[in-house]
Amino acid sequence: MFDAKSLLDQFLGSQGGGRSGGRGQSGDLLAQGKDFLSSQKGGLALGSLAGLMLGTKTGRKIGSKAVTYGGLALVAGLAYKAYQGYQANQQGQPRPSYPSNEPIPIEAPRDTAFDPARQPGGENQFAINLLVAMISAAKADGHIDAEEQGRIFDKIGEAGLDSEAKAFLMDELRAPLDLDKVVASASCPETAAEIYAASRLAIDPDHPAEKAYLQMLAARLQLDPALVDEIEMAVREAELAG
User: Fold this and answer.
1) Mean pLDDT across the chain, nearest whole number?
2) SS3 call for 181
3) To 10 degrees, what angle do helices 146-158 and 40-54 make?
4) Displacement of CA 90 from its chain's centroid (Å)
5) Domain limits of the chain?
6) Distance of CA 185 to the CA centre of its chain
């Protein structure tokens, strides 16, 4: 099995610090050689690959205080923060506030449904689920046509990925948009919120098809519109955290 956690870190521009699932890798993954890319050149190629696949400079749009988290912890933290704000609103209480010097407003607590280590199939499988959700969201506006696929396949060849990672990306790119597959990966309301958060991180919904996709995803995931609004707010704050 390829290292989906590391690939998710690269897609989100994360540095995979010790907050990512508790196993602790500090500093730059590329410099340490602990991700599956062969060199910094490969990492740069993968960064442009993510831009092509997602139709956005995703790794650059997340603020510097947010990317100190690994990708799994970032998504979990944003979903948890949104859920806290949603619960506060439902109870007529003020939204929680957090220290401005925190890398992201709050880390999802361990041993809860938000904890990546608690997900069915383990952290790596959940990272795959989030990658599938992100790539699916990127397909929503139809920008990944046959010509764009060819460009992306070229980048995959340059990125230094192992054969399993290459096969995964190519298969997901070739596959038709499958909302059922994305929705089925949500095992509980908390993971549903995380899947939606990852999908929203993948795109800037300024295209009608992207907006319609996110609306349909939220409905299929059975997310309360008020919670969706909180996720949107959390994502925007992460983009500005720097």
Assistant:
1) 78
2) helix
3) 160
4) 27
5) 1-242
6) 14
